[in-house]
Task: inverse folding
């Protein structure tokens, strides 16, 4: 048994303890983020090259994909033009000779040198009297390696090749044949899992498709299971010595706030408020995620929780990722709180020094009950008298440490996280673990409809015409660009027009030739173009992250007041902007945005009583980008689109790389593995029901694994 323990503990030793992992190869591994044996063994292959059926060069059938093996006889590098290089080599075996070529991959000439034994897989053709493969897959065969089989291809670099990584991993696994398994025996038997060592062998050296699939299932389950345990234990440890604060959930402030609302809550909103208030009034700390589609009314739901904190004689803080969004809270909720006597404040980096000093004193004294703000809320000099509720909006835009910093300013605070990026339950479980979830799926104004059209760049004038029609009706529009500036030209003043300005009647037939349809749109250049060539008679303004906070505030105030007709912007308006009279949005180079982000942007129009229209301008009508845009056109359901986004992109791209636990999931796909994730969640909860802190001796190695993987 001691040998098994020693082998398992050795996984956290330096990777340099493994044979072949020294010198230049060690440097290469370190560049790949591999410093320990544990990190080496979870450096999984990108793909596999199947060389299980090797034929001779002469017998490889023409027009079909085959695997062949031979020795490199000659290598030539041909430079056709300045930026065009062809590497051509001749390969020989006992049956004859063939040619292989690669386009614009000059490094291959340094890798496949004369005398190298190599496996190639590709389509065999016949050209100018020679058998030939173009851009075949290749694997160098070491002298002592098996010939053929299914060979892994790893993420690699110039210092350590894929073949060397395979050899180093093979050596590490051979030296540790009796690794302890962190999964409980009963769980492995129930689920029919192979051992961890067998699974690692089958993933790195697959002998069959069935063995690989079973190994991947086992290791993917382990990833999620450990993550679930970590998240659940973290919450238990945080709460075990705490005494949760029980809020008053039927007080006069909340009742007065509900009466002051100028509208009736939807059924989804009522249900969400009820679940939140139930948590706040219970003897456990609230840890709830409120997910709602764009325009579904999450803010007013959160406001009910803020009012409950006031009724309880404590304080609440609501943090937003941008000043624009924080100011939107003040604009929407401030007058309602004023009407019912709930003292509130707004704290951002733009707050003046004197006002900030007064506000900090009031927070410390407890005379302010609700504070809206940005990252300014987590500054060290911000102190609360009795913070009992923390609300984090668009929480995926904050790092774990930032959310924890705000929570730490109170004692045993209830936590309400909100997001307008709907995510499937499987992803919510992997990222948040044992977190209760509320959903708002319906929008308060069900009669408003927003249409979505895909416009080729060559027909961009159709999108501008859509804006012109809206302006003629007295409405307003957004134009969103992926970049702030391409070349940062000197900008004219808002009222300045130059000699190149054309009459409006000529615009739709002449403007297309002026802009390069292949270039990426930038907001600053688009602003000048619109002012000079498209809408010279209208007020067109700019909103980007480069503007100072006071300038952003002035622009938004003017846009809300109708003093700006067209707002050119980047994604700074993605959340928190609510201008009911803005009914049209043009998204330039829409293919450069993610599906969930496009849906968020689309939610900025159709927020009042008028229908909205969104024009997705793109040069990418096919492929994954085109599929993404067509999905947006077909559906307005944020939850459905989130599922589609996950199918097209990695979950880290959807939620952001800073989300806790994302780095621990290497084999898991939250769409494909939804049932596996649910099973892992159930099993983790069941284990902690029997052993809440994993204190039993039988779970000692499991505790060690959690500490090794998550540093806790």
Result:
């Amino acid at each position: 048994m001691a040998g098994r323990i020693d082998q398992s503990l050795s996984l956290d030793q330096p990777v340099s303890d493994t044979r072949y992992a020294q010198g230049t190869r060690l440097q290469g591994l370190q560049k790949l983020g591999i410093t320990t044996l544990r990190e080496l063994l979870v450096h999984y292959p990108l793909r596999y090259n199947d060389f299980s059926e090797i034929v001779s060069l002469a017998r490889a059938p023409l027009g079909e994909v085959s695997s062949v093996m031979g020795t490199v006889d000659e290598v030539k590098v041909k430079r056709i033009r300045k930026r065009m290089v062809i590497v051509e080599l001749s390969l020989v075996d006992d049956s004859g000779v063939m040619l292989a070529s690669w386009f614009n991959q000059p490094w291959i000439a340094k890798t496949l040198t004369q005398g190298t034994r190599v496996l190639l897989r590709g389509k065999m053709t016949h050209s100018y009297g020679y058998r030939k493969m173009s851009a075949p897959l290749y694997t160098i065969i070491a002298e002592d390696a098996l010939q053929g089989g299914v060979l892994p291809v790893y993420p690699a670099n110039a210092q350590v090749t894929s073949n060397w990584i395979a050899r180093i991993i093979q050596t590490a696994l051979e030296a540790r044949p009796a690794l302890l398994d962190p999964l409980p025996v009963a769980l492995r038997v129930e689920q029919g899992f192979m051992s961890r060592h067998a699974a690692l062998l089958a993933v790195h050296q697959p002998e069959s498709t069935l063995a690989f699939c079973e190994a991947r299932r086992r290791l993917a389950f382990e990833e999620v299971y450990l993550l679930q345990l970590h998240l659940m234990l973290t919450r238990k440890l945080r709460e075990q010595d705490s005494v949760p604060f029980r809020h008053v959930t039927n007080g006069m402030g909340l009742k007065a706030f509900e009466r002051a609302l100028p509208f009736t809550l939807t059924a989804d909103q009522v249900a969400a408020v009820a679940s939140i208030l139930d948590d706040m009034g219970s003897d456990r700390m609230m840890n709830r995620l409120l997910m709602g589609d764009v325009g579904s009314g999450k803010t007013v739901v959160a406001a009910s929780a803020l009012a409950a904190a006031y009724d309880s004689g404590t304080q609440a803080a609501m943090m937003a990722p941008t000043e624009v969004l924080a100011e939107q809270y003040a604009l929407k909720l401030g007058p309602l709180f004023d009407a019912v006597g709930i003292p509130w404040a707004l704290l951002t980096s733009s707050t003046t020094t004197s006002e900030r000093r007064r506000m900090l004193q009031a927070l410390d004294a407890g005379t302010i009950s609700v504070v809206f703000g940005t990252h300014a809320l987590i500054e060290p000099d911000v102190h609360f008298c009795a913070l009992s509720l923390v609300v984090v909006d668009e929480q995926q835009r904050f790092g774990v440490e930032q959310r924890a910093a705000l929570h730490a300013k109170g004692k045993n605070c209830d936590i309400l996280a909100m997001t307008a990026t709907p995510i499937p339950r499987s992803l919510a479980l992997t990222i948040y673990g044992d977190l209760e979830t509320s959903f708002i799926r319906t929008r308060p104004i069900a009669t408003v409809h927003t249409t979505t059209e895909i416009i080729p760049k060559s027909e961009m004038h159709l999108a501008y015409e859509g804006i012109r029609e809206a302006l003629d009706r007295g409405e307003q529009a957004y134009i969103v660009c992926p970049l702030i500036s391409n070349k940062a030209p000197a900008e004219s003043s808002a009222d300045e027009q130059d000699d190149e300005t054309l009459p409006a009647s000529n615009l739709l037939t002449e403007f297309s030739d002026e802009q390069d349809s292949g270039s990426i749109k930038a907001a600053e250049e688009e602003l000048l173009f619109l002012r000079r060539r498209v809408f010279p008679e209208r007020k067109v303004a700019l909103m980007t992250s480069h503007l100072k906070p006071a300038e952003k505030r002035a622009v938004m105030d003017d846009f809300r007041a109708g003093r700006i007709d067209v707002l050119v912007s980047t994604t700074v308006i993605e959340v928190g902007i609510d201008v009911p009279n803005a009914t049209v949005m043009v998204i330039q180079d829409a293919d450069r945005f993610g599906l969930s982000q496009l849906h968020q942007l689309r939610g900025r129009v159709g927020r009042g009583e008028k229908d909205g229209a969104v024009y997705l301008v793109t040069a990418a009508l096919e492929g994954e980008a085109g599929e993404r845009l067509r999905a947006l056109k077909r559906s307005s359901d944020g939850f459905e689109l989130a599922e589609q986004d996950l199918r097209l992109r990695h979950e880290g791209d959807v939620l952001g790389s800073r989300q806790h636990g994302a780095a621990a999931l290497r084999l898991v796909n939250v769409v494909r593995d939804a049932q596996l994730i649910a099973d892992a969640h159930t099993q983790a909860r069941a284990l902690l029901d029997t052993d809440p802190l994993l204190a039993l001796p039988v779970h000692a190695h499991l505790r060690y694994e959690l500490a090794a993987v998550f540093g806790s």
